[in-house]
Amino acid sequence: MGVFDDKKFEELDWISQATEPIDSELNELLEKLPDELAIDFNTYMKLIGDRTYGIDMSLDTVIHSLLQQTPSNEFDVDKLSYNHRDQLKKCFKFEASTNNLTINFETRSIDGGELKLIKTATTLDEDTLKNMLGYEGICKVSHIGYLESSALGRINEIMELLGDCQTGLRTRSYRRKRHELVGRMQKLFKNNEWNIKDTGLADKVGFWIHDYIKEGNLAALSNFCRIKVMTHKGQPIYSMEEVE
After folding, report:
1. How far is 28 from 181, CA to CA, in rounded Å?
2. Which of 134, 188, 232, 193 is nearest to 180 (CA)?
3. Per residue in 139-178, pLDDT tens?
4. Residue 150 CA to chain centroid, in angstroms?
5. For the segment 10-43, what is each residue's pLDDT rounded down to a tens digit?
6. DSSP of 165-216, one letter per residue?
7. Are the beta carbons of 197 and 236 closer than 8 angstroms?
8. What's the pLDDT at 65?
9. CA-based R_g, the chain, Å
10. Which run of H or of E encompasses 118?
11. Which residues pair with 92 in a beta bridge?
12. Mean pLDDT throughout 203-208?
């Protein structure tokens, strides 16, 4: 395959190629989690782990614990953002058979009824995924701190490649440039101008921009330019061959 070929898109079935659904690694993580989990005392203790600051059990802590217990060579669960964890949390609920459940540490039991974790959705809906496109990368760019004056030229390079950044290019203020750059990125992903159909890949655009502006990372610039070239093919973008 060529440098600018999209391997993931080529592997999609014809229905997916026709409908162009947004893909996300969160759906793969969601698939790994159980549809239903009965929570007895031993399960409860396993889910809260070795915590010393409390014994409460929230959806967030349960889902994070389950993901940590699910081996994966692809994802570092501990690096999931709060936004990602929040989206996964919305796909689950606790279901209790009564309102009188009691955790009895003396008998090591949950008394008064049964408690379950129930998966309420097997995939994140399309609107949720649309709103997630580029979000993590934009946050990364918006939090770029102090920069040397030499970095201003790199910001201008990125804005010229993005286009529609005239105000940012004219100003000499770094803060104003960053503000305009973030605004342009938000507009780009809100309208999905580049037709990127993978939330992880969309986030990488912002990560590459950050690494080039902040560190002058040429591999990051190369990857950014590669995906910009791919937009001219007129098809959805699910993956690309990156350089290290």
Report:
1. 31
2. 188
3. 999 999 888 888 899 999 999 999 999 999 999 898 999 9
4. 31
5. 888 888 888 889 999 999 999 989 999 999 999 9
6. -HHHHH---HHHHHHHHHHHHHHHHHTTTT-B-BHHHHHHHHHHHHHHHHH-
7. yes
8. 86
9. 22
10. strand 115-119
11. 119
12. 98
pLDDT value at 51 more than 80: no
- In this prediction, residues 193-222 reach a mean pLDDT of 96
Residues 162 and 122 sit within 8 Å (Cβ to Cβ): no
Distances in Å between the alpha carbon of 50 and those of 41, 47, 199?
15, 9, 33
Rounded-to-integer distance, Cα 92 and Cα 89, Å: 6
pLDDT at 68: 83
Degrees, nearest 5: CA angle 24-128-209: 60
In the chain, the percentage of residues whose pLDDT exceeds 90 is 66
Q: What angle do CA 99, 105, 111 make, to 5 degrees?
A: 30
Tokens representing 157? 């390079």
Token representation of residue 174: 């770094």
Q: Which residues contact 84 (CB under 8 A, 6 or more apart)?
A: 26, 136
Bigger pLDDT: 54 vs 146? 146
The amino acid sitting at 40 is D
In our burial notation (b when 16+ CB lie closer than 10 A, e otherwise), range 141-162 reads bbebeeeeeebbebbbebbeeb
